[in-house]
Amino acid sequence: MRNITLLCLGTFAISSSGHAQSVTWSEHVAPIVFKHCTSCHRPGEIAPFSLTNYTEAYNWANMIRYVTELSYMPPWKADPKFGVEYLGENYLTDDQIATIKAWVDAGAPQGNPALEPPLPVFPTGSQVGKPDLVLSFAQSHTHKGNGKDEYRYFVLPTGLTQGRNLVALEMRPGNPKIVHHALFWADSSGTAAYLDAQTPEYGFVGGQGQGGGLANFGPQLPTYVPGAKPNVYAHGMAQRIPAGSDLVLQVHYAPTATDETDSSTVNLFFTNQPVSRYVRSHIMLPNSLVNGPFIIPPNTVRQFHGVFKTPMAVSLLGIMPHCHLLGKNWRVFAITPKKDTIPLIHIENWDFNWQGTYHFRKLKVLPKDSEIHAFATYDNTTDNPFNPNLPPKVVTWGEGTADEMFYLPLLWVPYQTGDEHLDLGGGGTNTAETAFHFNRTRLYPVAPNPAKGPVKVGYTLAEAGTVGVHVHDQQGRSVTVLQPDRLTLAGEHILNWDTSTLPPGLYYITLRSAGTVQTQKVAITR
Q1: How far apart are the C-alpha atoms of 250 and 182, rounded to whole Å?
Q2: DSSP 102
Q3: Among the residues of 428-519, which ranges form H helices?
Q4: How far apart are CA 186 and CA 158, in angstroms?
Q5: Do residues 127 and 248 share a domain?
Q6: Which of 75, 133, 293, 408 has the smallest CB count inside 10 Å?
Q7: Total number of domains constituting the chain
């Protein structure tokens, strides 16, 4: 049975007669929250509030019910019905969601504190443990508050006098409010240091040929997305960091209305055990498309199809679909020379805020000349509430958030006998607490949607500030105000809205706070 679906310590269930047994925090809810939520919802981590005890959970009970009923939290984008098991799967079963609902409906009782399981022990300053090498920014970088995103490269000398075998990489962002994600390379050529020396400021801005685009400084190392616990390689697998190399990272800073500074740290974890295979990567880009070029005309929904043929027998370890705000879904599978189909990943509802590398529980063995087929769909219409261009315009490849990408890293090792039976969930890779994050200030999906009559609109606010929540039609005209612009305290906020006052159609809810705008789409029916 899949470890992520196991319910521990007295899981609540709905009986066939429809009557629920008494449900409490200590016996039924705490085991769920501690396993699926607390790794991010604790002091020093990325989530906007902590869930480490009853009092904290009680204060957020309504929001917990709201986001879990939507299956919005904990966020897990890979389709569990696609036939693939991953390390660290993190979604709730229907019974777990019903447990939380029953607990909140009953007034969120604590129960017997003696029955509460102990809080998991988490490493301090890390989600992995004690690092072997810590690399930090030499100085702070100021990200301008001009409402634009920034992709900046930083060069961190490793100082290694001999090559080391890397089994995990962990970034600790100095300013989680603006660090959206980061890519890493080990550069032993000096190229990145040379480019950095050409600019007076700390770090440099690169083009598509300078890492992260159509070329990079070397094999890509593990990536960083906020809230995701780093994977730890085991079973004799690692990535090589050459002696004297520089760690190069490309940091994507999200748009902000005010100047923000960042000085981040990277933890590296090495192994002294013998390494039998080094992890390699291949990135599927637009040059793999069979229906290119990669151009998305305005007012169109377009699906691109990429194909990569394996040059040798390989065993896939992981996969990382990546696109931007026009992304709608991904579907990736392999076809062997014997015409066997091997599913790899399906993401039905792509979300730019929740992305990461999905590591397979068991290696995906692909004989030589197997074909990996990747389908990605993009919505460049006004029906896409995340479209950065209104009205829509032609969008092509680019690193900016308003541009788009077809970017699919594949992690693999050369095949060896026995890979078909190797379970990566066993040999030292502890990913039980893997989780994703949501932005500190977040507008949640409308429930129910499609809407017919009363609905709930919820959001969390990280810091007190002026917030307004408005509803617009498809032409961008304001049709109602759910919350006028006013000073609002940090915390959870749930607004009640009677949609029967508006004619059927598609509408957009916008939350404006601290110079940023977040949007959710709702369909009103009768």
Answers
A1: 5
A2: H
A3: none
A4: 9
A5: yes
A6: 293
A7: 4
